[in-house]
Design brief:
single chain, 2,3-Dihydroxybiphenyl 1,2-Dioxygenase, domain 1, 2 helices
Length: 122
């Protein structure tokens, strides 16, 4: 249903370095630069990083990215933490969501809750 989403960030270059690392294990990569904006996707430009247009406090956003398998969730978490992200939840099953929900959560440079999730049984 979602064609694309834009996330306002305080420092586009710093956020781009984070998303370069965190999305690579999920098959995501930079797909377009348009002015100061940077687009990411596996094809197309699903996620856009755009400069914040004011100095007000950022509001937390939750982004969940689909992972092909549990190993990709593990790799996402490791890459994000290596890129400086705070680990909110290490990779694990979340049976309260459903029996095969396997996810990991980190905080990006702007304080957003970023997740990789695999819904497959193994």
């Amino acid at each position: 249903m979602i064609d694309h989403i834009a996330v306002q960030v305080r420092d586009v270059a710093a956020s781009a370095l984070f998303y370069d690392a965190a999305l690579a294990p999920l098959g995501g990569r930079r797909t377009k630069t348009y002015g100061e904006n940077i687009g990411y996707g596996t094809s197309g430009h699903t996620l856009w990083l755009v400069p914040a247009d004011d100095d007000g406090p950022a509001r937390e956003l939750h982004l969940a990215f689909a992972a092909a398998d549990r190993a990709a969730v593990d790799a996402f978490h490791a890459a994000a933490v290596a890129a400086g992200a705070e680990s909110l939840h290490a990779p694990r099953l979340w049976p309260e969501y459903h029996a095969s929900y396997y996810g990991a959560f980190v905080r990006d440079p702007d304080g957003n809750n970023v997740e990789a999730v695999c819904h497959a049984g193994t």
